[in-house]
Design a protein that fits this description.
The chain is mainly alpha-helical and 168 residues long. The chain has 6 helices and 4 strands. The protein has a two-stranded antiparallel sheet with strand order 1-2. It has a two-stranded parallel sheet with strand order 3-4.
Length: 168
């Protein structure tokens, strides 16, 4: 209804939508969304109320852009995953197919998969108030640190003295 679309547009306008850093392909539009297009409430209202664009046009846009993978915003009910699989694209859904209670876990799993494939998400933005710090882990075990006992004789002597003291 027009009232629910009005309410949706108002709520969507409350968010700060920045221009995408990667091309945004819309299944509704059937192609790449213009870079200068505002992604505020009006855009999302248009996406909900517009006639559905052609899947073929969206897939052609992915091919033309040379995409290897596609992150689909919305549920799998949108039905774009199967044609994309046929073209060799890796596909991820932002929402789970059925269980709404697992949305958060699904998003984290998708984020992890994207990270494993070379994307560099802003992890600090996930938990901004937690004050988390990034820690660099070694690339292999014991990198740049020794974990060997260098003074074996001192260690052995100290252990023998301890045993003798315990016996008395």
């Amino acid at each position: 209804s027009a009232e629910s679309l009005d309410l949706f547009e108002q709520r969507a306008d409350a968010f700060n939508f920045y221009p995408p850093k990667l091309p945004l392909v819309s299944g509704q539009v059937g192609g790449v969304v213009a870079v200068h297009k505002s992604l505020g409430g009006g855009f999302w209202r248009e996406m909900f109320s517009a006639e559905r664009g052609s899947k073929d046009e969206a897939i052609a846009a992915f091919v033309q852009l040379g995409c290897e993978g596609v992150l689909q915003f919305g549920s799998s009910e949108f039905e774009t995953a199967s044609p994309l699989d046929q073209f060799g694209f890796d596909c991820w859904q932002s929402l789970p197919a059925s269980d709404e209670s697992s949305v958060g876990m699904h998003l984290m799993e998708t984020l992890g998969e994207l990270y494993k494939r070379g994307c560099n998400p802003a992890f600090a933005a996930l938990y901004p108030s937690a004050g988390l710090q990034r820690v660099k882990l070694p690339g292999y075990p014991f990198e740049k640190q020794r974990y060997w006992i260098t003074e074996i004789s001192q260690f052995m002597n100290a252990e023998e003295e301890l045993e003798q003291t315990s016996v008395l």
